[in-house]
Amino acid sequence: MVNAGDMNGSGNLMDFLDEPFPDVGTYEDFHTIDWLREKSRDTDRHRKITSKSKESIWEFIKSLLDAWSGWVVMLLIGLLAGTLAGVIDLAVDWMTDLKEGVCLSAFWYSHEQCCWTSNETTFDDRDKCPLWQKWSELLVSQSEGASAYILNYFLYIMWALCFAFLAVSLVRVFAPYACGSGIPEIKTILSGFIIRGYLGKWTLLIKTVTLVLVVSSGLSLGKEGPLVHVACCCGNFFSSLFSKYSKNEGKRREVLSAAAAAGVSVAFGAPIGGVLFSLEEVSYYFPLKTLWRSFFAALVAAFTLRSINPFGNSRLVLFYVEYHTPWYMAELFPFILLGVFGGLWGTLFIRCNIAWCRRRKTTRLGKYPVLEVIVVTAITAIIAYPNPYTRRSTSELISELFNDCGALESSQLCDYINDPNMTRPVDDIPDRPAGPGVYTAMWQLALALVFKIVITIFTFGMKIPSGLFIPSMAVGAMAGRMVGIGVEQLAYHHHDWIIFRNWCRPGADCVTPGLYAMVGAAACLGGVTRMTVSLVVIMFELTGGLEYIVPLMAAAVTSKWVADAFGKEGIYEAHIHLNGYPFLDVKDEFTHRTLATDVMRPRRGEAPLSVLTQDSMTVEDVETLIKETDYNGFPVVVSKDSERLIGFAQRRELILAIKNARQRQDGVVSNSIVYFTEDPPELPPNSPHPLKLRRILNLSPFTVTDHTPMETVVDIFRKLGLRQCLVTRSGRLLGIITKKDVLRHMAQMANQDPESIMFN
Prior knowledge:
The protein has 760 residues and is mostly helical.
């Protein structure tokens, strides 16, 4: 029951109710929660528990359990999110390699695991071992030649199509909400919007399974964004086990904020970055208590993933790196150039992807999601296979691009011409001239870069789980590695130039191309998402090197400035607006000089506002009003003549109250008078029994005057999370402003279509 005390006028639902009536205080699908009311209900619940705890030992123990329930939920979320992330990583590793071959000793081993267990593997041929066979070797006993290549090529495409078709079919049939990144919807849910089923058990199961399938198919997408959705599903499941969270939508959102932090923690192995990501990017309401709990959930999730050790390197991510060379001031210029590239790429990607997604929504293309996924997968597999940098998984590609070339590296990117007389420590190899392998790798990377840029635009937003972090990082890492190799060769061949003379002597290890790849990855991810602080911390936790924070900060800030010059929206905000979710972004500025009277309804020429009177309407009148309108609530006035405001009654609670009264209370009929007053007058003996609904009335609805600037109204809606606000003049009701009205007005002022706001 709603029990918010005398201060805001809401209390037990009806005088004659002895126990809570089901669904009171809950919200309908695609509606916004009332933050003030949820906060008030939690305060009352806490006050009640505190007063009861003094009555007996058992009540005191119950109060302790209630206080600890939040930490228990965080522990459970961290354990489940970490376990699921570990399972997903292991499954992706195996299924990605399955497209190219199989392990004879145990088919469930990936290529790397298979060769680990083999005693016949040598260091020089560590990627080749007898136990691992490509499909051509297994089927036609050939490993080289045109026929073997064509067979491997064909089976690579078939496996990719099989995985993608299975994924899109599972999403379509069992959990339509399991598609996409999930972060735009999580942001909207955390702002107070209700999307039933979006964080449900089926969505959790199907998203986990299909995430493995789509990443393994080789499509240009990542698992990091969807892992936030998976973690929030875990948070929703565990919060439903505790009445403290299941019966209060505001408290539930505190749990979901912490779950989002745990999701990023296991996605990147960055617990602190996860907390900052939740704070900076997804959360709407983030009290200090939630900060501590987010940190605990992220810590437990990272610890769980570390215990599983999915990559076998005692690290939480595949592309953990350590660099041994410091950076120099002169290198800030190429780092800033990478920031500019990241901002331009972010702008290009957002505009093209939103245009394509809008076309998908408004044309026949949207009616064939399975066909779209199959076509994009086929194109991706056909173009990706010939290029070794697009054939492998994107995480492995980023890992190779981030890598520093040591003496034992066999990658093409490390094919430098060595000085036979060199006697240097392994970790301090001087800059060397590029060999043929590096030049081959450069043009292959250039082709891979163009391919990734184009294909990611069409992949993100399809009806499959699709993250954007990894493709964006791959684009930046490829561009950064090429720039890094260019700077390295320039420094080697022209070390007497003034810019190199002071810090790059012949025979010194001056430039680390892997660092440029990392800076480029941060710049591109920042350009797409507009993250800054959390992005730098995530990248710093990936490398474990404090001294590279300045290059990362320079690239992230430049990327944001450049991208913001073309438009303030990041990709997630753009998708929120595309889908018409009622999201009031705290970052948006409203500077127009309009007043509340310009936005409120009813406008001139419209029908008068639908209101309830405090003591002159019958049950039938109220039911008729509810039936003929679809408003979420009704202002209650003294009379239709005076229009002096008394309070506000929610539609859902009116329906439940009347339904329950008819079932439980004798004498309540259609012509019973409905009273919202404290003490109804005495009625004649033969008159029907009155219905008292004072207790469902909010006696302190939020009101503004008709001359309140809309800038203030928008701020009130943002900071207090209101559903609606009543407009008065000298205590008389003039109209109402809902969250949807505010969003429509903001769209109108920005010369956008106000009807794009689809939900209440």
